[in-house]
């Protein structure tokens, strides 16, 4: 029996069978042939959202760009193409996605269906770039859903609950360069000047180190047309992004696991290792960072106005707990959108993501953070760890019951369900 595991290693499953369809027609045939089917992309979610309870469809063969209009910027792709491959194919066409997160192994369908996002006070998650999608429903219908379709706002972040997304049309923009400015700052200074930092940059984010006042800031801004790229030198990339941020950091995390009492001092050192740097490069080269140290993650979207108080509450918890947290906290921002199950639905957000090394049990830490975040109307990222159920989501998503009604209509027998969907959407 084959066992499937997600990237983080915290979710495993033993599907009845594994299929690798290469087309929508093959997906339809498999959906009709089996009572329980679940599609998976890269397995980069930390939740069991893609864990199969029957036949698993791996969409790795559905990885083609089907059509690209460089004038309108509309690009049609198969749902299994990775963001990593798509970014490079778009760049060759003179196009780009308007916003990205900080890693790119996810499939397009996986990233959009779980509400994956980047940062930018006037920008949105990746699903906002979806102009149309193709959905295979439980009875084998192939629905073409665009902005004029009554399912559009439900299907763009569909959680894998409505059917299997097989093709996606993305509204891209002309390729652009970003100027990156990265520098350490005291966390207290970042919080004191937070609105100016967020509103004064196209993309702003920061990391802060628990048990310290140290933060690392990232400001990414578009440059004027005609600006020449000035990418990081190979040696600086190798030193900062590969050696320090991955090779050395893996050893740091192993030491933290063995000697947790050292973590405050280790975090102080970690927050000081990376110095200030500036460079200008293609947008996807600036957005994306290599992440090879395995971890577990929980991330919540809160109303942007709650950022300072939530961080203060986290700092108070770090100060009084006997637990030491070795991984930095990531903080990002996005604008409100109109997608029913998007964490950004009708609300400007701050996203606060907490992490633990994969060899450390995150349960108590994540539970404490979840209590802080839900007190501020937090909405967890659908692909990141939490323990909340339908009762909470009904309170924080105005269109929750409308989404469930669409699911009831499209999948009344729950062909696409699993334990996670029963948890978050109800039976």
TrEMBL record:
Residues 11-175 form the FAD-binding PCMH-type domain. It comes from the Bacteria. GO terms for molecular function: D-arabinono-1,4-lactone oxidase activity; FAD binding; L-gulono-1,4-lactone dehydrogenase activity. GO terms for cellular component: membrane. Keywords: Oxidoreductase. The keyword Oxidoreductase applies. SUPFAM superfamilies: FAD-binding/transporter-associated domain-like (SSF56176). Pfam families: ALO (PF04030), FAD_binding_4 (PF01565). Transmembrane segments: none annotated. The keyword Oxidoreductase applies. PANTHER family: D-ARABINONO-1,4-LACTONE OXIDASE, L-GULONOLACTONE OXIDASE. This is FAD-binding protein. It comes from Aeromicrobium phoceense.
């Amino acid at each position: 029996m084959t066992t499937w595991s997600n990237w983080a290693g915290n979710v495993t499953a033993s599907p009845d069978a594994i299929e690798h369809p290469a087309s929508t027609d093959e997906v339809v045939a498999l959906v009709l042939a089996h009572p329980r089917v679940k599609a998976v992309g890269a397995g980069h979610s930390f939740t069991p959202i893609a864990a199969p309870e029957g036949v698993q469809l791996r969409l790795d063969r559905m990885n083609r760009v089907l059509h690209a209009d460089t004038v309108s910027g509309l690009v049609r792709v198969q749902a299994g193409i990775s963001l990593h491959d798509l970014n490079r194919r778009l760049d060759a066409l003179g196009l780009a996605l308007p916003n990205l997160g900080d890693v790119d192994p996810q499939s397009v369908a996986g990233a959009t269906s779980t509400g994956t996002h980047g940062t930018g006070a006037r920008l949105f998650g990746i699903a906002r770039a979806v102009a149309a999608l193709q959905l295979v429903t439980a009875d084998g219908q192939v629905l073409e859903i665009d902005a004029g379709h009554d399912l559009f706002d439900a299907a763009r972040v569909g959680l894998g609950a409505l059917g299997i997304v097989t093709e996606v049309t993305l509204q891209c923009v002309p390729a652009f360069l970003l100027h990156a400015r990265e520098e350490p700052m005291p966390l207290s200074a970042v919080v004191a000047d937070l609105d100016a930092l967020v509103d004064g940059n196209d993309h702003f984010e920061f990391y802060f180190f628990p048990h310290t006042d140290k933060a690392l800031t990232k400001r990414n801004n578009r440059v004027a047309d005609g600006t020449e790229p000035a990418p990081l030198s190979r040696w600086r990339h190798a030193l900062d992004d590969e050696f320090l941020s991955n090779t050395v950091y893996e050893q740091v995390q192993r030491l933290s696991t063995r000697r947790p009492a050292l973590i405050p001092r280790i975090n102080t050192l970690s927050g000081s290792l990376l110095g200030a740097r500036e460079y200008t490069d293609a947008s996807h080269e600036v957005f994306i960072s290599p992440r090879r140290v395995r971890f577990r993650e929980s991330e919540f979207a809160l109303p942007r106005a709650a950022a300072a108080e939530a961080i203060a509450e986290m700092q108070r918890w770090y100060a009084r707990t006997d637990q030491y947290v070795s991984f930095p906290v990531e903080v990002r921002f996005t604008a409100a959108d109109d997608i029913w199950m998007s964490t950004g639905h009708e609300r400007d957000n701050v996203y606060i993501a907490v992490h633990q090394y994969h060899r450390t049990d995150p349960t108590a830490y994540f539970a404490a953070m979840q209590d802080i975040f839900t007190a501020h109307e937090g909405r967890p990222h659908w692909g990141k760890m939490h323990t909340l159920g339908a009762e909470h989501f009904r309170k924080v998503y105005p269109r929750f019951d409308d989404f469930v009604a669409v699911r009831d209509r499209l999948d009344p027998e729950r062909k696409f369900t699993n334990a996670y969907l029963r948890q978050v959407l109800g039976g």
